[in-house]
Write a structure and sequence with these properties.
Helix content is 36%, strand content 0%. The protein is mainly alpha-helical. The protein has a domain at 21-45.
Length: 66
């Protein structure tokens, strides 16, 4: 062999994956909970400060017939 044993790459063994880290599952779960929590907060707070019909709405006559 021309290459020394130190430089020889052994492709006979394929490394096995250890899988997805548990921390990634926790981060995914926390992220999904936060997405739904923010969506719920937006839906629940969407009516805050809105009064319909407003008492201060201008009643302007739009035609020229007076």
């Amino acid at each position: 062999m021309i290459v020394s044993d130190d430089e020889f790459l052994d492709f006979s063994k394929v490394p096995e994956s250890t899988g997805v880290p548990p921390l990634l599952y926790r981060a995914l779960a926390i992220g999904l909970v936060m997405i739904f929590a923010i969506g719920a907060a937006v839906c629940l707070m969407s009516g805050y400060g809105h009064h319909w019909p407003a008492d201060t709405t201008l009643r302007v006559q739009l035609n020229n017939d007076q």
